[in-house]
Write a structure and sequence with these properties.
The protein is of the alpha+beta class. It has five helices and three strands.
Length: about 100
């Protein structure tokens, strides 16, 4: 989640990623247990391209991690997603400090 850009811009991007209801639901689902893309698509009722776009943003900002596993019966690679532990704390002191950086 670290970035070299302006801290206010970075915080704004993080909050915008978390503000989307579908991304929050992905985080919630993957916090309960690891999920495959197929499980997420079925639970959310969204297309594969849309899910991938949401996952990409969550992965890029460090909210989700993935691992791959080979399904030897079907000769495919399954990707599993889970929410990484994170905490976001915002208060007046933190906001004021962003202006000083």
């Amino acid at each position: 989640m670290e970035s070299r850009e302006d801290p206010l811009v970075n915080l704004s991007k993080i909050l915008s990623i978390l503000a989307h209801p579908t991304r929050l639901k992905i985080l919630a689902l993957c916090a309960v247990k690891e999920r495959t893309a197929r499980e997420l698509r079925e639970e959310l009722g969204i297309s594969k391209p849309l899910l991938i776009a949401h996952l990409k943003q969550l992965i890029n900002y460090g909210f989700i991690e993935s691992r791959a596993e080979i399904d030897e019966e079907r000769f495919i690679i399954k990707k599993y997603y889970k929410t990484k532990k994170f905490e976001i704390k915002i208060n007046d002191e933190i906001l004021a400090s962003l202006l000083r950086k």
